[in-house]
Amino acid sequence: MKDRRRKKKRVRKRDWSPNDVDTHAHLPRRLSGVDVGLDAEAVEIEARFEDIDPNGVVVSPYGVLAFVEFQGNEQLCRVAERLCIGRSSILAPGDHVRVEPCEDDFCVTGVKHRKSKLSRPATKGQREQLIAANVDLLVCVVAVAQPRFKVGVLDRFLIAADMGGIAPVIVMNKTDLREQRPDQIRVYEDLDLPVLHTSCVTGEGIEHLRQQLRGAVSVVAGQSGVGKSSLINALDPDLEIVTQEVSDFNEKGRHTTSVSRLYHLAGGIDIIDTPGIRQLGLWDLLPEEVALYFPDIAGFALDCKFSDCSHIHEPACAVREALESGALAQVRYDSYRRIRDSLESGSR
Ligand SMILES: Nc1nc2c(ncn2[C@@H]2O[C@H](COP(=O)(O)OP(=O)(O)OP(=O)(O)O)[C@@H](O)[C@H]2O)c(=O)[nH]1
Ligand SMILES: [Mg+2]
Ligand SMILES: [Zn+2]
To answer: Which CATH class is domain 132-273?
Structure first.
């Protein structure tokens, strides 16, 4: 296999102002009176972030090492012990770090506070796992087909983006496969979220996507096989990231991209490619907070009789009334219930 780490590196510095990003209105997302106190370990990890003057950006963490852009090159660095837990570091692509020479090597000695983050619970669910740091946009990629469009996965990404302070852009890819777009995508257009329709085969929407991403740091996420790496290749044909066919049998994709990695594309686009995931777990979210991340449901909930209404069984629930009248989309309500149920059962 080709050494993808030696692909071209264009290192640039920039000031990003998110003036062309469609951020949606901010409701308070934390419920008052609910103790969401971080546990001792989370507080201790938080303390490792500092107000430093960074001289490098993490491209891809690699156990207790990390590929870092530093002095115009991509450098494999050791990560200081205090920034590691066990056999991996706390770094994520996009982290701003301090690199210092150490012995014959370079070492990451500090990491700056993050301005935004995309995270999930680590495999055992006990700890936060960072997917990307300091990004402006989350490009949530879904496909017309292969694999089938699932609102649940998208809704979880939208929640994670909102929690992490990242503006979402939805990309409906593979439009060449079917003329008919899944009806459910209209729900997101009605929510005033930016929805782009793209095809890496016909080139539809690629220029529009390029314009959306110009001048921003983005992370691309979604199920395996939806075409995340193909889209990045389409944005900059010099790149040639490895992509692979979706398996016909189970439509689940094959997890072609196995590590997250930051790329610099032509035209001022910084973008982090990530491995596909089947289900995004939600970190640090309580069941009773889920509705706050569904702007459509949160809007109706203001008129529920009980301020702590779960919108499941209470009388005089404005959310269920909206559902019955058709003002609230059934797919959104179902998705809300599924996410809430999974958090309640402790599976995130
Ligand atoms: N027909 C069609 N196929 C596409 C399109 N975009 C990507 N593909 C194909 O879909 C398959 C999966 O694409 P990848 O780019 O590897 O998907 P990915 O989302 O990066 O997958 P992971 O790395 O496993 O998460 C490949 O065979 C691509 O050629 C598209 O717009 N139309
Ligand atoms: Mg990929
Ligand atoms: Zn209600």
So the answer is: alpha beta
Ligand 1: atom nearest CA of 257 is: 23
Residues with CB under 6 A from ligand 1: 173-174, 176-177, 199-201, 224-230, 243-246, 253-257, 275-276
Q: Where are the domains of the chain?
A: 38-113, 132-273, 287-344
Architecture of the 38-113 domain: Beta Barrel (2.40)
CA distances in angstroms from 234 to 21, 66, 204, 240, 332, listed in the order given: 22, 27, 11, 9, 32
Nearest CA to ligand 1 atom 32: 174
Nearest CA to ligand 1 atom 12: 225
What pLDDT digit, counting tens, does each position of 153-194 carry?
A: 999 999 999 999 999 999 999 999 998 888 899 999 999 999
Look up the CATH architecture of domain 287-344: Orthogonal Bundle (1.10)
Q: How many residues does the chain have?
A: 348
pTM, two decimal places: 0.87
Query: Which atom of ligand 1 approaches the CA of 230 most closely?
Result: 15
3-state class (DSSP) for residue 97: strand
